[in-house]
Amino acid sequence: KIAPEQQQAVHDIGEPGLLFGPREERLYPNGKLAAHVLGGTKFGREGVMSAEIVGQSGVEKFADAYLADPANGDKPLQLSIDLSVQSTIREVLFGGMTATTWVQIIKACLLLGGASFMAFMVMSHFGFSPEAMFAEAVRIKADLAAKGGKPAEEAARIGQSIMGPGNFVKDPV
What is the Cα Rg of the chain in Å? Predict the structure, then answer.
């Protein structure tokens, strides 16, 4: 590509073999934004007066037949890429909000680490035996029911009830 002034200067030389034929080109109003979706092009057959544009990847390759069809004239290909969402994601990942993103990642790691530490400590108290932990939960629930004035058989049934499906959330230890 050369500037129109440069093109005119070459034309002013007066050489009959120096011609500037029309070349198709595909315009991307937002530059490189969404380039990974839109894909790219290359020149196909080239002649003295023109050059064919061929889609190489992405939407360019998918819609190449439509874009190259003279029947479509200068009708643009309209896509539904939400550029505001894409630019926000780009800003968050690569722009000024990178520090905020890292803060969130660090917080998530600390939360996961804290929960893992608590689970480790609880399980170590019971010798890493889930059966021992559940047995202790049943015993504590039965003891609480007995202290509340329930007969021994009913207290034992109440203790076992926390192990039934759906009862733990309704009646936690």
Answer: 36
List 43's β-bridge partners, or say none.
53
- Which of 14, 16, 35 minimizes the C-alpha distance to 26? 35
Distance CA 22, CA 47 (A): 11
pLDDT score of 80 more than 60: yes
Residue 171 and residue 161 in contact, taking contact as beta carbons nearer than 8 Å: yes
% of the chain with per-residue pLDDT over 90: 27
Asked if residues 138 and 162 have their Cβ atoms less than 8 Å apart, the reply is yes
pLDDT value at residue 28:
67
pTM of this prediction?
0.37
**Residue 47 is encoded by which pair of tokens?**
């002649």
Beta bridge partners of 51: 46
Bridge partners, residue 53, by sequence: 43
